[in-house]
Design a protein that fits this description.
The chain is an all-beta fold and about 120 residues long. It has a domain of about 80 residues: Jelly Rolls (Sandwich), CATH 2.60.120.10. The protein contains no helices and 9 strands. Strands 1, 2, 3, 4, 5, 6, 7, 8 and 9 form a 9-stranded antiparallel sheet that branches. A hairpin with a 5-residue loop joins strand 3 and strand 4. It is globular, with a radius of gyration of 14 Å.
Length: about 120
């Protein structure tokens, strides 16, 4: 079994952009480099890149993020605002609904855990 190093991201970048019906401010595009997937396909880890824009999100999964570049704002459906920037680590719990807004082009390392069943 190998240790996953985010700096060794030789995996191809899969293009990403928010679903058109979720876009609030157009422009966000980017890519994902998935570096790890557990045998049961419930845990993923990798690097995500995005340009400026905003979109609605609904999290069924739990996600740990570490921002390695840029800045973003997450606004919950109840109006709670959280700004994150380079160096910040945080958890988005499953059940979170709101808006993800990239304020400065960004990169993050992520670990996603999907719910059981």
């Amino acid at each position: 079994m190998r240790i996953i190093l985010f700096r060794d991201s030789n995996e191809p970048i899969e293009p990403w952009q928010p679903e058109p019906d979720r876009v609030m401010v157009a422009g966000a595009t980017g890519g994902t480099q998935n570096l790890y997937e557990s045998g049961d396909s419930r845990v993923f880890a990798g690097v995500w890149h995005a340009t400026r824009g905003s979109w609605r999100v609904v999290y069924d999964e739990m996600e740990y993020c570490h921002i390695t570049k840029g800045r973003a704002r997450l606004t919950s459906s109840t109006g709670m605002v959280t700004e994150v920037q380079t160096g910040d680590g945080f958890v988005i719990p499953n059940g979170f609904e709101g808006v993800w807004e990239v304020l400065e082009d960004m990169e993050k390392h992520y670990v996603i855990v999907l719910p059981a069943g």
